[in-house]
Every structure is written in structure tokens, then in C-alpha cells.
Write a structure and sequence with these properties.
α2 packs across α3. A two-stranded antiparallel sheet has the order 1-2. The protein is elongated, with a radius of gyration of 21 Å. It contains 6 helices and 2 strands, in the order βαααααβα. With about 100 residues, it is mostly helical.
């Protein structure tokens, strides 16, 4: 299963940056982060972003958080799997309770 199959947050930094016609170096300078960190964010290899950094990115790119970070749902099978697991766990708990009540 590829990572693209599961739900994820997509960082649309490149689209927003091109729309504003600003270089990565200039954006990094204005936001106050290093270029390598900005490139890592663009690649999606960062696991977290500080709110002040996110705020500055949105300010400099003249965009909203929802334009910069977009939720991409997983495939329908993956979306249903957690619900199925939860349902199975509830069913198991109910069976255990019934057995305890009988015994």
C-alpha cells in the first residue's frame, strides 16, 4: 500500500508560492525559517509545523490555512476499516459482558 492511499494532509506550498511569484529563498527569509526547512515542508517530509510559522506563511503567501494545507481522504476501504475495527471491538466487549452475566 502506498502512502498516497491513506488519508493525509497535503501541503500546497509550491502552488501558493508560484501564485505569489516569490522565491523559496525570499519566502524563507520573510517567514524566518531556513530554506532546508521550507523545502522539507514543501516535500511533505515535515511531521509538524508551529502555528507562528503557519501564520507567517499564510500572511506572506496571502492565503488561508485551508488553501495551504488540504486534507486528502484515504481510499473508501481504508476509511471504513477503523469503523469496522471499532464495531468489532464493541461486539467483543458485548459478548464478554454477556458471558459474565451468564456465568
Amino acid at each position: 500500500m502506498a502512502a498516497e492511499d491513506g488519508p493525509r494532509i497535503e501541503v500546497r506550498l509550491e502552488q501558493m508560492r508560484q501564485r505569489r511569484n516569490i522565491t523559496m529563498a525570499e519566502l524563507a527569509r520573510r517567514v524566518g525559517i531556513t530554506e532546508p526547512n521550507l523545502y522539507a515542508l514543501r516535500r511533505g517530509s515535515k511531521k509538524a509545523i508551529r502555528f507562528p510559522t503557519l501564520t507567517m506563511l499564510c500572511q506572506e503567501l496571502d492565503c488561508t490555512v485551508g488553501e495551504l494545507l488540504v486534507y486528502i481522504p484515504g481510499s473508501p476501504t481504508q476509511q471504513a476499516a477503523p469503523r469496522d475495527r471499532a464495531t468489532a471491538e464493541i461486539g467483543e466487549q458485548q459478548r464478554e459482558q454477556q458471558i459474565e452475566a451468564i456465568g
